[in-house]
Amino acid sequence: MTTNDSYPLRALGRVDGGRTEWVEDDWADVEAAIRLDATMFEPDTTTGLEHFSHLEVVFLFDRVDPDKINLRPRPARGNPEWPPVGVFAHREPFRPNRLGVSRCRLLAVDGLTLRVAGLDALDGTPVLDVKPYLAEFGARGTVTQPGWVDDLMAEYY
């Protein structure tokens, strides 16, 4: 099956603050703001969001050069102690559509500004969507993953 469909997306806002350079670990206490585009949205579009503790944020890895995307299996983070896995078996930014998805803590809502912690996106990153995290959308049943993922994520948040 081949598909050549394209779907234009427009950034809804940008990350403001937090890290300016990519560092793999210790994201839990990194604070930033998501500033939604006031030319697209009225402040009431965030009404009720303040009642949620966490968000799911979809963003663009805009600093990844599309020519550097490698779809061949490789160890995560280039660590030779971990097995080579395909692009869909890890969460690195070198992805076909350069999309990132992150769950982060919502600290405050001020109109079109959402203060967050633990969002693993850089200052200036285009934000494509914001959703409240609902526990019911979490995994059902037992979650399994290979041991190398436990090692990789040990210091991430």
TrEMBL record:
The lineage of its organism: Bacteria, Bacillati, Actinomycetota, Actinomycetes, Micromonosporales. Pfam families: TrmO_N. It comes from Phytomonospora endophytica. InterPro entries: TrmO-like_N (IPR023370), YaeB-like (IPR040372), YaeB-like_sf (IPR036413), YaeB_N_sf (IPR036414). Belongs to the tRNA methyltransferase O family. The keyword S-adenosyl-L-methionine applies. The keyword Cell membrane does not apply. One of its GO terms (molecular function) is methyltransferase activity. GO terms for biological process: methylation. It comes from the Bacteria. Gene3D superfamilies: YaeB-like. This is tRNA-Thr(GGU) m(6)t(6)A37 methyltransferase TsaA. Keywords: Methyltransferase, S-adenosyl-L-methionine, Transferase. Residues 9-142 form the TsaA-like domain.
